[in-house]
Amino acid sequence: MNSRRYLMIISLVVLVPFLAAASTTYAVLFTDVPTNAWFAPYVSQAVEEGIVAGYKDQYGNATGKFGPDNPVTVGEALKISLEGAGYDTSRGVGYGHWAAKYMSVALGLGFEMMQVQGLNSDRPANRAEVASLIADAFKIDNNTFIGGQYQDVTAATPYAGSIQALTKSSIVAGDKDAAGNPIGRFRPNDQVNRAEAVKIVIGARAAYGTPGHGTSLSSSSSRSSSRSSSGSCKIQDCGSAPAMPNWQCPNGSIAGPSCEKLPDGRCGWLIRQCPVASSSSSRSSSSSRRTVQTFIITYTDNGFQPSFIAVRSGDIVKFRNQSTLGMWVASNPHPNHSDYSEFDQRKSVNANAEYSFTFTRVGVWGFHNHQQPNHQAVVSVDPQ
Fold first, then answer.
1. Strand 354-358 to strand 316-321: parallel, antiparallel, or no bridges (unpaired)?
2. Pairing between strand 372-382 and 308-312?
3. 79/77 Cα distance (integer angstroms)
4. What angle do CA 274, 276, 277 make, to 5 degrees?
5. Distances (CA, A) of 54 to 42, 51, 100, 165, 172
6. Is 236 within a domain?
7. I want to staple 140 with a disulfide (CB 3.0 to 4.6 A). Which of 49, 135, 333, 382 is the partner?
8. In sequence order, what are the residues at sequence separation of 6 or more whose Cβ sits closer than 8 angstroms to the Cβ of residue 128?
9. Which residue range(s) make up the domain with 314?
10. Whole-prediction pTM value?
11. Three-state SS at 281
């Protein structure tokens, strides 16, 4: 991506103060974080504890900027939640997007948001989504919702249980009037900025510590699994498909989320990793050429899974038909496929067949099944 963000995430304004009054003497970490800014102590602590870092340029060099007023993305929110709660994110796997490895960790932990099909990690996250990520990362009970805290949060509001749980823990609060009195409004669909994000994760850390330390990432959550009496697991047994693709390892094997039988008999999503022997593979070889990656998108009776994928120019995407329908992959619009005319399967194939395409044009490309035009998805192609 043109500017990768390795800093992360998000919070909910207005927040209840959760830290004791801090000293006003902070080292100048970033040119856009004044030492007297209200968020300076939180940024300082988050950097010191390895939760966040500033922006980097396309070459990986620090820019000296933090971007406190910038909206944070879903990927950034996910990263800061996991890092803040102390998970070993180095065990994450994934290629094609910097957030893929964090998505793989969250998938293995059963984060609720990872069941959102086509989750775009580059879009701004809203306040309800941040509450969900924080509650899941810090293992806060968010399974029940009583209501009555906010006028704009009901049982129908996405992640209402998480909003309630974080409010009850005094980690977040709704808006207040000029006198500091609550006005019963949370604004669950509004964006949050990076300064607010740092404050909320530090607050959660102060209240709940680092519950991610020592957590095993090898099994899936019961949220995304169901009982299967016998035999192998089918995709429908594992629940909603994870919001990340499979990918092909250098030795030809397939890694990524897999619907499998768990030791206790449930069917759930596990994350298959590439063999250790292939771990030396990276985006850049000794000759500074980037290793081409191969990704897999599965076509089912319900559409493409995942419905959003980010790759780099030169990467290959394989489309596998695991539906009872014909599959004819082609770029938008239907029916002339003119946005990316080369990206056109040009014929329909039945179950178990596949179509491969190498993406060389940078941009965001919508595509569909020519046989079922309502089945749409997106490939984002970044420069090498």
1. antiparallel
2. parallel
3. 5
4. 105
5. 14, 11, 19, 30, 24
6. no
7. 135
8. 157, 158, 159, 160, 162, 163, 188, 189
9. 282-382
10. 0.58
11. coil
